[in-house]
Amino acid sequence: MLNPNKALERAVLIVTSFAAFVTPFIGSATNIALPSISKQFSPDAVTLSWVATSYLLASAVFLAPFGRLADILGRKKIFIIGLIIFTITSFLCAYSPNIKLLIFWRTFQGIGSALIFGTAMAIITSVFPKEKRGRALGIVVAFVYLGLTLGPFIGGFLTKNQGWQGIFLFTALLGLISIILSLIYLKQEWADAKGEKFDWKGSLIYGFSIVSLMYGFSLLPEINGLIFTFFGIVGIIIFIYFENTLEFPVINIKLFKSNRVFAFSNYAALINYSATFAIGFLLSLYLQYIKGYDPQEAGQILVVQPLLMAVFSPVTGKLSDKINPGKVASVGMAMISAGLFIITFIEENTSIWHIVAILVLFGIGYALFSSPNSNAIMGSVEKKYYGLASGTVGTMRLIGQMSSMGIAMMIFSIFIGKEEIKPSNYTDFMLSIKTIFIVFAILCFIGVFFSLARNKNN
């Protein structure tokens, strides 16, 4: 007969892994469907981009507050509510009669995703003992990468045969399976901060600041972008000051002051995602515009990176149970930094095998960084802060992703302007890509030192 603790560990791992697959899957699959959505609704480019951005933005705004709320009300409860919201809105997205309603439901889908991601890692950390935690987190991270890997393939197949609506209906089915698995297997509740107050005011200030900052960043270098970015930065300063005065803040700023591992691991995550998220986007454009590959061929090349991430994440997670996770993550960040330096020399005639070799370096580097970095963060806080820590990790990821795309768009705007990418401006396009990779390489190099800084005196 299976040990009750092992049975619980296995059940939680199954449920959280399945849920961890669904949320990144819809993100990567939707990107493939954007041209089909554009063909049906004929929106302008900015409006079309909000189909993807609204999901990311809503997730970023609600991750930390709901991570904290999960610590108070119960992680299982918030996790299942998130799955329900995610599943219902996936279904509603499929039947949106216009682009505005699709963006509206995508926003709520992002909220559901925040509830799921803000609690999944916290539940894992609550159930698994320290010596098994890294491997468990590695498996969950592997499913995240599996979702990213299969998203373009399954999304492309569904869009071709069922229309873009097929992606959302398929996701709704996956969400329904996740709900059933959660109701069957999650018999226990985890609420280590039960009875503590929830910081509503701080959550509102935080939400306003993140929306203003991200929206402003997406408009840079226009004047409106500067105004929104300014108000976002001011809002964050007010938020940090306000949170320092509270006994039960939505984000415990004091943890960043008193917990070196927690602080620098989060800083490293923010820098890592800021320096890497747009790589796939840029290489997709390069492979299709410069190399002349079709979307399916480009996807087959780009799949090398997330596939390696999915394969090696459980291994690196287990490794971080035995070796200082901060040191393992630092090696991963250094590998990514080296890959970014090499890819700054990309040219129109660069061999495809050269690109594949760099993607291999990225894939292994990501695997070495992500799981151990999450293990370092989750292992550095008390039980009552697991939800908060999980939400903070997710928030760093999403803000980093938005920042990465913001940097790319800003540099494209400077070198190309608001023109369509075409043979007449391929020279400017290549200069833009190389400049973006240089900025990312510098960022990632700085990130290595942030990653190493957490290990001081350890």
- CATH architectural group of the largest domain: Up-down Bundle
Which class do the helix and strand fractions yield? mainly alpha
Poorly predicted residue ranges: none
CATH class of the largest domain: Mainly Alpha
CATH topology of the largest domain: Growth Hormone, Chain: A
* Count of the separate structural domains: 3
Helicity, as a percent range: over 70%
Q: What is Rg?
A: 21 Å
Instruction: Work out the strand percent.
Output: under 5%
Individual helix count: 17
N→C terminal distance: 41 Å
**H/E order of the elements?**
HHHHHHHHHHHHHHHHH
Compute the average pLDDT.
Answer: 82
Q: What is the number of beta strands?
A: 0
Name of the CATH superfamily of the largest domain:
MFS general substrate transporter like domains
Q: What is the 3D shape?
A: globular
- Biggest sheet overview: none
